[in-house]
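Students often ask why we bother encoding 3D structure as a string. The short answer is that it lets us treat folding as translation between two languages. Here is a chain of 125 residues written in the first language.
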Amino acid sequence: MISGMGVDLVEIDRIDRIIERWGDQFVHKVFADEEISYCKKHVLPAMHYAVRFAAKEACLKALGIGLGMGVGLKDIWVSRSDKGFPSLIFADKARIFMEKQLVKGAHLSLTHTRRHAMAMVVLEK
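And here it is in the second language, the structure alphabet:
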């Protein structure tokens, strides 16, 4: 049974400007080490940061909460399977919140163009 669904769209240029201004301070506050390592490998790291930011926001929406409501962006991160499929990893407060909400699974879809990054999350009980 679906317990929540969220979608988020991010302008890649916006994330690029934030990274230019705040650098590692922003990156390390929002992204897990695994995400940072993955994004830095690419020619356009802002595109990959943006789609991961969208995934985090979409997940919060699926949980029915927003920023500052108990789950931090760094508590949710995007991982990739050996075949390249994205999935969500939940740590600390996110994992506890999901257990309390009886969420048993999370499904993630990511896409991006040169200008926009989008993510959709479906949570199931």
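Translate back mentally: The mean pLDDT is 94. Keep this in mind for the problem set.
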